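Q: Start with the shorter request: fold the first protein.
A: Done. Sequence, then structure:
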Amino acid sequence: MSGPAGIAMFMAASVIAVPTPPGLPSTDVTAHRGSVYQTDSDGKATQGFLEIDNTGAADELTGAVCPNADNTSLVGADGRTVSSLPIPARRNIVLAPGGVHLTLQNLHFPVQYGSIVPCSLTFAAAGTVSVFLYAKPAP
C-alpha cells in the first residue's frame, strides 16, 4: 500500500504496536487541581493542595519538591510529617485542608494571589509527576 493510505496505516500501526519500554515511569498517575495559600512575604510557610488520579496499579507518593520553598513536606491531618502516602489502584486521592496536604516551608518568594507555584511529586512506581499550584487567599 502506498500514498496517503499507506502512510496512515504505518502511523496507526506504529502507535498501536509500540509498548512502553521497560524502566520508564508509568503515565497512570496524574496530579491536577493544585492550589496553595497566598503569603504576604518570603520566609513564610504555606500549605498546598491537589488531586492525584491513579488509573493503574497501586502506587505510593514518597516525596514532593516545590522550588520556591527550602523544604516541601507531606503532612497528615494531625500536622505531623508523613513519609509516604499509599495511592490505591484506580482511585482518586485528594490532598486537602484538614487532611493530608503539602507544607512549603521557608519560601524564597511571597506567593501572591494569582501566581503559580510549580511542584514535582515523586511516586515509587510512576516516578516524577509535575503539578502547578495556583495561589488563592487563605480562609
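Q: Next, the second protein, separately.
A: Sequence, then structure:
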Amino acid sequence: MVKYSEQPLDTVFAALADPTRREVVKLLALGSRPVTELSQPFPMSLPGFMKHLSILEDAGLIKREKLGRVVSCTLLGGPMKDASEWLTRYREFWEKRLDALARFLYHQEETQSWHSPRPRSDRRSRSSANSTQRRRKSGARSPNRKC
C-alpha cells in the first residue's frame, strides 16, 4: 500500500484550488517560461502574481531559476504524481460503489412493476364526500354602486 503524507498533499491541493494557479500549471506544462511572460495573461500586478508563484513553489509544484536578470519557472511532476495516485485510489473506490448502486437499481427495476402515472382526467378524488365550490371573486363594479 502506498503511504501518503497528508501535509504535502494538503499543500498541493490548496495550491491547485485557485484557478490562476491551475492556469499557471497548465502553461508550464508546455515548457519553462520567464515570470514576465508567464504573468502577462493574468489581470493582476506582478507582485500579486508572484504570490501565486510562491504558493506553487511552496507546494513543490514549480521551481524558479534565475539566469542573469531573468527568473524562469519550471513545472515539477513529483507532487502532481502523488496527488494523482491519491485521487486514483478514491476513484476506484467510487467506481465500485457506483457499480454496486447500478446493479441494485437494475435489480429493483426488474423485480418491481412500476405504474405509469394516470392521465390528468382520471385524477379525481376518491372520496365520497361532497365538496363545495369556492366562491368566485366579484367582477367589475356595477354602475349603481356608491363609492
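Q: Describe the second briefly.
A: The domain at 1-111 is CATH 1.10.10.10 (Arc Repressor Mutant, subunit A). The mean pLDDT is 81.
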